[in-house]
Design a protein that fits this description.
There is one protein chain. The protein has 507 residues and is α/β, with parallel strands linked by helices. Strands 9, 10, 11, 12, 13, 14, 15, 16, 17, 18 and 19 form an 11-stranded mixed sheet that branches. Helix 9 links the parallel strand 15 and strand 16. Helix 13 packs across helix 15. 45% of the residues are buried.
Length: 507
């Protein structure tokens, strides 16, 4: 964008990082917020959002001369809502001028104004433009003074009103209070837990009396949020509710929330709102892209993070994604823990998952009653990224093993041997396990209802192979298994259970 000369109050198009040009207004920054060094920039309030940012002058264009150009290249619903907000602002401004006819200005009368969410313009991965579905309510310069919760519809983000929130413990702006240390909690773990310290520094928290089954958990008094109600997330949330936790849920497909609302959960209409309402927010989504989008996207987690808020990433992703998410969460004063889970939909429903955690130890301790509700045991593995590494190794082994079992079943058939006899013999030997028995029985019955999606185990194999490459460590078995799963995906088995890898051998 070409350099322009702008003044306070001018309407502009501002380009923030990787996001499209967005309508905004040049405003005065807070008195205690310094302009970035070495940059010629203006402080811009974006319409339809709660975001403000320092934007370089070369990334700004006047609003009116470029309006038609911008509308042609941006067709999104959120973008159109932001443009509508500008037009409403202009109409209100014109109306004020007409109504003031000879009455003079209103010096000394301060219009209630909006709180800030300030974005670093150069750090595009640390922020995402929020869902601009709500209209701009004031033309005053922004100050951190007011907040209202959720708008009227799904994906609508926050609205703002004039009621003071200085007493609201959930309203805490990051940049205006970054000198404060994030709150931390050191509440002791329940006496029912066994703490096992190893020389490696890892810790295991085990429910000594199978608390998720017998219901003897004392739930935390912290408000819990949960994002993602897929195969694993649904069982986790159900068990959190059964054990008495106060849970607010959100899912990309809102209808999936209905059942949990009936069970006593509260509804959050955006990830940002869930995080702002809750003390600890868990997420469990499909892959690294989904995990990043949930945090960095419009109305994302980062929009709701305040100092002391806890975010727990339960998705199985690569260590690099965990490192990135940990950095952006903690940069806003939040507290971060990764806690991917080993298990299946059935184990999730039964509250018998194995939780691998790493990151902020105090968050791990704060989550003790939640982990008891959802799992039979949990391990603390040190710094963020370690749990992702361990989970990928486990799933690499499981995926490779499943492919080998499927290969054995098909080879038995090809050589005239009974598949059922093969299974019977297998289940009487050292390799006997519930996993082998259930997966093989399902294969023989042609039942591939997903308990763990095939596409997800292939994703984990791919990430494990990449991790091996980065460590200069060979993973030939995983690479071979990965090719079989890719073949199964090509046969439209992605949304079936991982045992559907069997079909890659019979086509």
């Amino acid at each position: 964008m070409a350099t322009v000369h702008l003044r306070i109050g001018d309407l502009v198009w501002g380009k923030l990082g990787r996001y499209p040009p967005w309508p905004g207004k040049v405003v005065s920054p807070p008195k205690d917020l310094k302009k970035p060094r070495g940059k010629k920039c203006h402080f811009v309030k974006f319409f339809g959002t709660e975001d403000h940012a320092w934007i370089k002058v070369e990334q700004l264009k006047p609003y009116h001369p470029h309006k038609e150009e911008m509308i042609k290249i941006n067709k999104g619903k959120r973008f159109q809502q932001a443009v509508d907000a500008v037009e409403d602002f202009l109409k209100k401004a014109k109306g004020k001028e007409q109504n003031s006819d000879g009455k003079g200005d209103s010096k000394g009368k301060k219009t209630p104004s909006k709180p800030l969410k300030i974005l670093e313009e150069d750090d595009e991965d640390l922020s995402a433009l929020k869902d601009p579905s709500e209209k701009d309510l004031t033309d005053s310069d922004p100050e951190p003074s007011t907040l209202e919760r959720l708008g009227a519809g799904p994906g609508s983000g926050f609205k703002w009103e004039s009621s003071p929130v200085k007493d609201d413990p959930h309203f805490h702006h990051f940049l205006l209070s970054q000198s404060e240390k994030p709150a931390s909690s050191m509440e002791p773990i329940s006496k029912r837990l066994k703490i096992i310290e190893e020389d490696t520094g890892s810790t295991s928290i085990q429910a000594a009396d199978s608390t998720a089954i017998n219901g003897s958990i004392t739930p935390t008094d912290k408000r819990i949020g949960f994002l993602g109600l897929g195969l694993m997330g649904s069982g986790i949330v159900s068990n959190l509710l059964k054990m008495g936790h106060v849970v607010t849920v959100w899912n990309r497909t809102a209808e999936k929330c209905d059942l949990f609302i009936q069970e006593g959960a509260r509804l959050g209409r955006t990830p940002a709102e869930v995080v702002s309402m809750c003390d600890i927010t868990f997420s469990c989504v499909s892959d690294p892209k989904a995990a990043r989008d949930l945090v960095l996207g419009p109305s994302g987690v980062l929009q709701g993070i305040r100092p002391g808020k806890c975010y727990v990433e339960m998705s199985t992703v690569d260590p690099e994604t965990i490192t990135e998410l940990s950095q952006v969460i903690t940069s806003r004063g939040g507290r971060f823990l990764e806690a991917p889970v080993a298990g299946s939909q059935q184990l999730s429903n039964d509250g018998m998952l194995v939780i691998l955690a790493a990151g902020d130890r105090t968050v791990y301790e704060d989550c003790s009653s939640c982990f008891q509700a959802m799992g039979k045991t949990s391990f603390f593995l040190g710094e963020a990224g370690n749990a992702a590494r361990m989970m990928l190794i486990l799933n690499m082994v499981q995926g490779s093993f499943m492919a080998t079992i499927a290969e054995g079943l098909t080879l038995a058939q090809a050589t005239g041997q009974s598949q059922q006899t093969f299974l019977d013999i297998l289940c009487q030997g050292q390799m006997a396990s519930t996993f082998v028995d259930q997966k093989c029985q399902n294969i023989l019955q042609g039942n591939f209802k997903p308990d763990y999606y095939l596409k997800h185990i292939q994703k984990d194999l791919r990430l494990a192979i990449s991790m091996g490459d980065m460590a200069n460590h060979p993973t030939p078995m995983a690479a071979a298994a990965n090719e079989v799963y890719k073949r199964a995906k090509a046969l439209d088995q992605s949304d079936n259970d991982m045992s559907a890898v069997y079909r890659a051998y019979i086509h």
